[in-house]
Amino acid sequence: PELRDKMIIQSKCGIVPGKRYDFSKDYIINAVNGTLERLHTDHLDLLLLHRPDALCDYEEVADAFNTLNKEGKVCQFGVSNHTAGQIRLLQMYANQSIVANQLQFSIVHSGMVDSGLHMNMTEDFAVDKDGGVLDFCRFNEIMIQVWSPLQASWSEGTFIDNPHYPQLNEELAKLSEKYHVTKAAIAVAWILRHPAHMQVISGTASPIHLREMCEATNIQLTRQEWYDLYLASGKTLP
Q: Which of 86, 25, 98 is nearest to 61 (CA)?
């Protein structure tokens, strides 16, 4: 019990692999009960709804949240890969605040800042693909949790030491040498430099790699360094 009190356990639900997305009340509650049983704990600190369910009934989701919260099985709630509009709809019905939104973001996958930088321009970078979710989350004090912070794409894998990103890796190497950390730590520091105070999710099974990435918290990139990395990834400024 004492160790559990020192931990924050977060989980997600809503995907039936290869079949459907499911935000029905029964599925959410059964998913949580299954998670609690597998983890041998009596509650989750935070539950996220995974990729949006096109058939989502927000009143039904709110009912599931109320049930889980009253039973003490989930303390707080959030979402993953949701737009600003989808979160607004959920907040209309849910009694609990939405405290987190998990979103993909990295130096390469930077659509959340691209559209703002290129506002009112005609190039592709100006296209708003997420309904202004970054500003929405900041305005509503919703924590953005960043997933795949080192990924270029599903097919290319990481951009670290990827030959398709020579200029970016040159810039990462320069800053890596300056700050005496790995390229991965610099890439994470780029995310942490944003004033939205995002949390970074590191999907690694290596304690060494995790410690190296955590060194990013000791780095404060300059404004110019942040933009140098952004431009080195192939982006432009209007």
A: 25
